[in-house]
Amino acid sequence: MTSTPITPMAGAPAPEAKIAMGWMHTAKFLTTAAQLHHLPPLAVPEIAFVGRSNAGKSTCINTLTQQKQLAFASKKPGRTQHINLFALGRQGVMDAVLADLPGYGYAAVSRSDKMRWQQVMVNYLVSRPGLTGIVLLCDPRLGLTGLDEALLEVLRPRVQQGLKFLIVLTKADKLTRAEQAKALSVTRLQAGGGQVRLFSALKKQGVDEVAWLLWQWAHPAAPGADSA
Ligand SMILES: Nc1nc2c(ncn2[C@@H]2O[C@H](COP(=O)(O)OP(=O)(O)OP(=O)(O)O)[C@@H](O)[C@H]2O)c(=O)[nH]1
Ligand SMILES: [Mg+2]
């Protein structure tokens, strides 16, 4: 498999981008679970990708890891139905885990299924040991919706206790430059001081930056990781 070329971007100088993208590329499928208690206990930092159905969570994971089909992405909303874990680490030594979560807000799912899933997700976000960071993916054409706001509320106490938090505005290629700038500033206000990045899987925009941020989350003691 050929890896994505590294393009230096603002906020992620080339050496850091290379480290972060190389690390991301080590991702391997670890396990899948429909329920929280089926997830294995893990002793490494876990970073969860959450957001509305179809926001681009699975595509974001595939882009960051430079693997086309690691996470299942699909035009059909509701494609991800389990919590899928991917192990990261060089020389087969796992040092972090990415978690791809099913999206919420998918209209075609029955009310009882929605409620059940929302409960699993809330329990996961509130109680999963090792959860170090949350990446909330949001389609900037929709903006943060009521469900996203509800999730931010659930997360607030854990963020205050040190949980890392990033909002990724996906599908930036669908916006003009002016719309991108506007989406960024509006979401920054809503994020209450949290980090926000523009991202496009199609144009590889924001990829190095997000990878570097996640690397810093997972390696807080490493040189250069104190700014995340
Ligand atoms: N143009 C464009 N399309 C994207 C981008 N990222 C994702 N998509 C498309 O958006 C659709 C949904 O992507 P997924 O990654 O499956 O979304 P998801 O959030 O994992 O969805 P669920 O698993 O249903 O929660 C797919 O058709 C992707 O090709 C992007 O950066 N640009
Ligand atoms: Mg998905």
From TrEMBL:
A UniProt-annotated Pfam family: MMR_HSR1
GO CC annotations, alphabetized: cytosol
InterPro entries to which the protein is assigned, alphabetical: G_ENGB_dom, GTP-bd, GTP-bd_ribosome_bio_YsxC, P-loop_NTPase
Recorded GO MF terms: GTP binding; metal ion binding
Coiled-coil intervals, chain numbering: none
Gene3D superfamilies reported for this sequence: P-loop containing nucleotide triphosphate hydrolases
Residue ranges occupied by any EngB-type G domain in the UniProt entry: 43-220
SUPFAM superfamilies: P-loop containing nucleoside triphosphate hydrolases
Signal sequence coordinates: none
Cofactor section: Mg(2+)
A biological process term (GO) from this entry: division septum assembly
Record keywords, A-Z: Cell cycle, Cell division, GTP-binding, Magnesium, Metal-binding, Nucleotide-binding, Septation
Role according to the record: Necessary for normal cell division and for the maintenance of normal septation.
UniProt record similarity statement: Belongs to the TRAFAC class TrmE-Era-EngA-EngB-Septin-like GTPase superfamily. EngB GTPase family.
PANTHER family in UniProt: ENGB-TYPE G DOMAIN-CONTAINING PROTEIN, MSS1/TRME-RELATED GTP-BINDING PROTEIN
Designated name of the protein: Probable GTP-binding protein EngB
Source organism (scientific name): Verminephrobacter eiseniae (strain EF01-2)
Classification lineage: Bacteria, Pseudomonadati, Pseudomonadota, Betaproteobacteria, Burkholderiales
